[in-house]
Amino acid sequence: MKRTIRLHISPCPNDTFMFDALVNGRIDCGELTFEV
Asked: What pTM value is reported for the model?
């Protein structure tokens, strides 16, 4: 079952760096998808 997790991040460079790979599909998360 595919699940979507909604993330809210600030435009702070530290936040965007940490979540870049996750929200752009560079990390295999199986059935999870992420929405910002």
From this structure: 0.60
> Which residues, listed in sequence order, are joined to residue 5 by a DSSP beta bridge?
34
Residue 26 pLDDT level (bands cut at 50, 70, 90): very high
Q: How many distinct structural domains can be found in the chain?
A: 1
What gap in Å lies between CA 35 and CA 20, rounded to an integer?
Answer: 12
Cβ(32)–Cβ(3) below 8 Å: yes
Give the side-chain half-sphere CA count within 13 A for 15: 7
For residues 35 and 2, is the Cβ–Cβ distance under 8 A?
Answer: no
Which residue segment(s) compose the domain that 24 sits in? 3-35
